[in-house]
Specification:
mainly alpha; 2% strand
């Protein structure tokens, strides 16, 4: 999940970098949630300051022997309002977190922009690729007969995933343990 402070400070940069993925960041929704969060947070802080001020006034009134019942009545209403605001703030933060959980990671500035992995430049190569005296099979051709289900995985979660069934699933589990 992206840091909300990064979004607050460098929103335009984040949106531009996400557009290279391609991903359209919901700027209006983020700004609306941020404005609502700031409003609720400011109102909460103002109420807390009022409560603290009233507490000081109550203490000063009692010290001189005055009547503090009106101030105490005002102070008694503040905790319920603070609880309501805290609940609203929690709901806004949950919406904001849910939205940000759907945002992918930022690509590094050095990453070239392209449609797919074929647009990536080769930076360096270590060693020489092996050559075989037989026809090399694709991993899908090798894995399908032993229990690797690529078609179902692609339907469920998208490309580049695999379901393992039967003996290959047991082997994978044993190796992981």
């Amino acid at each position: 999940m992206l840091d909300t402070n990064l979004l607050r400070k460098q929103l335009d940069d984040v949106v531009a970098r996400l557009a290279t993925r391609p991903f359209a960041f919901p700027v209006e929704e983020f700004n609306a949630l941020e404005a609502e969060r700031k409003s609720i947070q400011k109102e909460t802080e103002d109420l807390q300051a009022l409560r603290n001020g009233l507490s000081k006034q109550i203490g000063a009134a009692k010290k001189v022997g005055g009547d503090a019942s009106e101030l105490m009545a005002q102070a008694a209403a503040i905790p319920t309002k603070l609880a309501e605001l805290e609940e609203k703030l929690g709901a806004v933060r949950a919406k904001l977190e849910d939205m940000l959980m759907r945002v992918p990671n930022l690509p590094h500035a050095s990453v070239p922009v392209g449609k797919d992995e074929n647009d990536n430049p080769e930076v360096r190569r270590w060693g020489t690729p092996r050559e075989f005296d037989f026809e090399v099979k694709d991993h899908v051709d090798v894995g399908a007969p032993i229990g690797m289900d690529f078609d179902t995985a692609a339907k469920e979660s998208g490309s580049r995933f695999c379901f393992m069934r039967g003996q290959v699933a047991r082997l994978h589990r044993a190796l992981a343990q």
